[in-house]
Amino acid sequence: xxxxxxxxxxxxxxxxxxxxxxxxxxxSHREKVIRWSIVLGIVLILGGGAFWxxxxxxxxxxxxxxxAFAILEAPVGAPSQLGKNFATQDEKTxxxxxxLQDVVxxxxxxxxxxxxxxxxxxxxxxxxDAKGAENDLQAVANSSSECAPLAKIALAQxxxxxxxxxxxxxxxxxIISKPTDLVSKAQAEILLAHLDExxxxxxxxxxxxxxxxxxxxxxxxxxxxxxxxxxx
Length: 232
Prior knowledge:
The chain is mostly helical.
């Protein structure tokens, strides 16, 4: 390439032309450039502010849940200097329900709110409030929360106690088709086999047979236990 050709190429380099065009545009449209620069700055500031606020709100929700858990995990018995305690289990349960209800009311629909609602449902079930428990657990079961499969298991137990076996089985089969880190397919199949133990023993035996190859010790023990009940 001759010096003349190199000079000609440099004079018409696309990047150089583009930069030159921007500079010329900025000079001739100075007010417009300043205006759009201000708009862009505001957008970036608002975006940063939104991210900060979302992080802050998540931290607040996490603290709400931790405060409720502190009540849920408080000891029952004589007063202690280590933290809050309750004189009776009933007093603790009532306080726990109130704390979890407050989190659900304040943070409902969020990750922390759904975790609180799952625990609230299990507490209501323990107090024999089947209707209240079903409402809370159903809301969690229908969500994308990591507690959803746990809520389905708790609901299946409630339905089983009310002889709503088809609904209980449907919930467990849903977990089997979509297992998670919290509830594996094998664990859900064990629960379904246990549910079918009296209502459909043949189906329970088929499920157990398919689980005999599992290497998880907990699954193996559960299979042996249910199999021994079925063979009596």
